[in-house]
Design goal:
The complex is a heterodimer of chains A (305) and B (226).
Chain A (H helix, E strand, L loop, with lengths): L1 H18 L1 H37 L3 E5 L5 H12 L4 E7 L1 H11 L4 H9 L8 E6 L5 H8 L2 H4 L2 E4 L1 H46 L2 H9 L4 H38 L10 H7 L1 H27 L3
Antiparallel strand pairs in A: 1-3, 1-4, 2-3
Chain B lengths: L1 E10 L3 E11 L4 E6 L5 H8 L7 E6 L2 E2 L8 H7 E4 L11 H10 L5 H14 L15 H13 L5 E5 L7 H16 L3 E6 L2 H7 L2 E6 L2 E6 L7
The chains are: A alpha+beta (305), B alpha/beta (226).
């Protein structure tokens, strides 16, 4: 009996979808647009995150050692820094590298070049370039370096110069995340309401049929089943269409935005591929749940016959 | 077969459709219920198919006590009563065959049974050649015959016809009435709500006359007197 009703439900749903093709396509299209909006927001989210990461990645703190500090002491500081969970990387730059870099930077300044030639030894010390995992980690890292036992070794840290910039970037990153989250939430609610009302309107057009079905002895579930299946069909088609539509758009966006992220990792298509099940699976599930819920709410209004 | 005892129905705010009405119809009868608009004719049909509950009184049809019927029992009741409406109430996106089959499908009838029974019933109403048509492709008379076929598909003991000729011309009305007579001759109790004077007078069957919610006349072989 249940299998009979189930297979008939699917059959009626397919039949109704086909015989009301324009109404069905309109429903699919609205759901499709809602999914596109959500994916568009997701893409913006990824772009914003990538932009923040790209900026964050360019920030580091250099610890300049006095020229007479032994390498073993610097290695000690380096290993202490590397042991911190907040540290992403620590790069050692020798006094020779620093001198070469300084000379290179000022290659057109004859006065500096002359001074360097006149000097007998290397006036530069070694440097440790520290990158933190997050902008908020820098104060923790620097407090570790402020250890009194290291105080005599360190000539200078450039954190104080960068602190203002880091704080501002931190603030901007936090605000961008909050704004994107708020827009995503508002858009999601709008998308849910639009889908909800589209399904309700679609079922509203069937209200006479629902009444007739009741009058000829159909049970409530016999009537509900096909509408639920039909809403699932709409959800499946809209998700497939959204998938087919979003990838070319992502590729296009990738090629345009790639230039802005020169040097930094930015792979929009890769992100969607890597999280395909998570993104489209969840969207599909959400759309199906919204569609089923909307159908049940809409039908219940017309079942009291 | 059908018993209405002291049934009252008031529609808000204060329209009394039926006032302490009692009516008893025996198995195999052909009864015409007549009366002016607002006399309560259609209310009786709506009460008998449990579309609306009575405010007081008792209604019994084919062993079902409608005043005590539970919501989940209503579909079962409706599968045992054939109903024909003035506006046909056909499913517009289903073919003639599918409309008739639908009444069987709701009760979980297997496909082979549907495939054998539906053509038989469509043959009775003379629509063998229109099985794949949609309702909008049929004339009024043909639509009403589809509605009758659907009502007959469960072989009901009672057929309720609410103004079955209300939207039809004289020729089609005659066909439909002949069909109802034929159904009655097979043993089905037919209750027809109508205000078609000519048809009622030609039938020479029991006529119940309603006026403002009261049975004012009940004749074994009656005439339309209003």
């Amino acid at each position: 009996m249940f299998i009979h009703a189930f297979t008939r439900g699917i059959l009626f749903a397919l039949q109704s979808f086909w015989r009301n093709i324009w109404l069905s396509l309109a429903t699919v299209f609205v759901v499709f647009l809602a999914l596109i909006s959500i994916n568009f927001l997701l893409a913006i989210n990824i772009v914003a995150d990538s932009a923040i990461l790209a900026v964050q990645d360019r920030i580091d703190v250099s610890i300049y050692f006095k020229p007479d500090v032994k390498e073993s002491k610097i290695a000690e500081v380096k290993s202490k820094l590397e042991s911190l969970s907040q540290v992403k990387s620590v790069v050692y730059k020798s006094p020779e590298e620093n001198l070469a870099a300084f000379s290179q930077r000022h290659q057109n300044d004859a006065q500096i070049q002359e001074t360097l030639r006149e000097l007998l030894g290397n006036p530069m010390g070694a440097t440790l370039v520290v990158k933190a995992k997050g902008l908020k980690d820098y104060p923790v890292i620097l407090s570790a370096v402020d250890d009194p036992s290291f105080a005599d070794l360190i000539e200078e840290k450039n954190y104080d110069d960068n602190q203002l910039v880091i704080d501002r970037i931190n603030l901007i990153a936090d605000n961008v995340k909050k704004i994107v989250l708020a827009i995503s939430l508002i858009f999601s609610i709008i998308a849910i309401l639009i889908v909800f009302n589209t399904v309700r309107i679609a079922i509203f057009t069937h209200q006479n049929e629902i009444a007739i079905m009741k009058l000829v002895g159909a049970s409530n579930w016999f009537i509900r089943f096909p509408f639920i299946f039909e809403s699932i069909i709409s959800g499946i088609l809209a998700t497939i269409l959204a998938m087919l539509f979003i990838y070319p758009l992502l590729s296009l966006a990738q090629s345009y935005l790639g230039a802005f992220f020169a040097g930094a990792s930015f792979d929009l298509v890769g992100y969607f591929n890597g999280n395909f099940i998570m993104i489209f699976g969840l969207e599909f599930l959400a759309i199906i749940i919204i569609n089923i819920f909307s159908s049940l709410v809409a039908i219940s209004k017309y079942l009291n016959v | 077969m059908i018993h209405l005892d002291n049934v009252s129905k008031i529609f808000p705010p204060d329209v009394s459709a039926l006032r302490n009405t009692s009516l008893h119809i025996e198995a195999g009868e052909f009864v015409s219920i007549v009366g002016q608009s607002g006399s309560g004719k259609t209310t009786i049909v709506r009460l008998l198919i449990a579309e609306i509950p009575p405010d007081s009184g008792q209604i019994n049809i084919g062993g079902w006590d409608i005043t005590k019927i539970k919501p989940h029992q209503i579909p079962l009741l409706r599968r045992q009563i054939g109903v024909v409406f003035q506006d046909y109430k056909l499913l517009p996106k289903k073919t003639v065959f599918e409309n008739v089959a639908f009444a069987l499908q709701v009760s979980g009838a297997p496909r082979p049974r549907i495939a054998s029974v539906v053509p038989q019933v469509l043959h009775i109403v003379d629509l063998d050649d229109k099985v794949n048509r949609y309702p909008q492709e049929l004339s009024g008379g043909e639509r009403q015959r589809v509605a009758i076929a659907r009502a007959l598909i469960h072989r009901p003991k009672v057929l309720l016809a609410d103004e079955p000729t209300g939207n039809l011309d004289a020729l089609n009305s005659k066909d439909i009435i002949e069909l109802l007579i034929k159904i009655n001759e097979f043993g089905t109790t037919v209750v027809m709500v109508t205000h078609n004077k000519e048809i009622v007078n030609q039938l020479k069957r029991r006529v119940v006359t309603l006026d403002r919610g009261l049975v004012v006349q009940d004749q074994k072989v009656g005439k339309y007197v209003i």
